[in-house]
Amino acid sequence: xxxxxxxxxxxxxxxxxxxxxxxxxxxxxxxxxxxxxxxxxxxxxxxxxxxxxxxxxxxxxxxxxxxxxxxxxxxxxxxxxxxxxxxxxxxxxxxxxxxxxxxxxxxxxxxxxxxxxxxxxxxxxxxxxxxxxxxxxxxxxxxxxxxxxxxxxxxxxxxxxxxxxxxxxxxxxxxxxxxxxxxxxxxxxxxxxxxxxxxxxxxxxxxxxxxxxxxxxxxxxxxxxxxxxxxxxxxxxxxxxxxxxxxxxxxxxxxxxxxxxxxxxxxxxxxxxxxxxxxxxxxxxxxxxxxxxxxxxxxxxxxxxxxxxx
Length: 310
Ligand code: PMV
Known about the structure:
Elements: E1 2-13, E2 24-40, E3 45-49, H1 57-60, H2 62-75, E4 82-89, H3 99-114, H4 121-136, H5 142-149, E5 152-156, E6 165-168, E7 175-181, H6 188-201, H7 203-225, H8 229-245, H9 251-262, E8 267-271, E9 278-282, H10 286-298, E10 302-308
Parallel strand pairs: 3-4
Antiparallel strand pairs: 1-2, 2-4, 2-5, 5-6, 7-9, 7-10, 8-9
Helix pairs in contact: 2-3, 2-4, 3-4, 3-5, 4-5, 4-6, 6-7, 7-8, 9-10
This protein binds (3R)-3-hydroxy-3-methyl-5-(phosphonooxy)pentanoic acid.
(3R)-3-hydroxy-3-methyl-5-(phosphonooxy)pentanoic acid binds at residues 15-16, 18-19, 95-96, 98, 100, 136, 139-140, 142-143, 188, 192, 272-273, 277.
């Protein structure tokens, strides 16, 4: 039996826009999905998903999960093999924090060890990208990149089909955030496809929003590096407005964003695919993090207290 893991992530800026070539900023969180893989004598692939989190998530993702493993086997040119996969780890499954990418990386790493393949992280990342297509349709690659490499990353899909631009961003110190879970399972594939359709149908409304996002992400990087968290927070609020405008937020996400801001968060926005799933609030310092997190818990929502830039 061999094991592998992948990081969970929170997109700080640029989800959805990043699918269309705008840069994004993503931070891995210090929680992982772990996979254990054991070869079996037959040619069946079985998966036992023991991850905890939003009710209904595991069931809702079963078909996509099976497709993602089939994609992996094709990439690895492994045919007629049997294996049992067990998924666990401390990253809860909830839409928006990269559960699918973390599990793709974890499974790919475990399978590589189990079958004695000599793949480096670049190759694992490429395989996880193919696996992500089962969950996201036309993924940008930001999730699998964060799940593979960890850290705080600048990510831009290559415009020419060459390698993506991936750069580490350094913070002066790690910064506390709160991730709030609406408790709704969302389908990233549907959300991504919806944006593409609306953008195509209404370019005059959508193109300026995409250009605004591009400038915003460049500014956000500079401000993160300068440790100007107040202004980073303002840009998060603006990013949330842009995400609302492209139709990927939801009432629950908007409610949690407002609640976080009322309780002193420097900024707040939905994170990931939207349509349910998670939001994040920028809450530098343990005290502010605690008061924002507990306000969400009192309203009946599950939260994660974590940090970016670790
Ligand atoms: O919902 P998640 O955690 O899978 O995040 C998806 C991020 C998107 O930008 C919406 C899609 C992508 O591939 O970049």
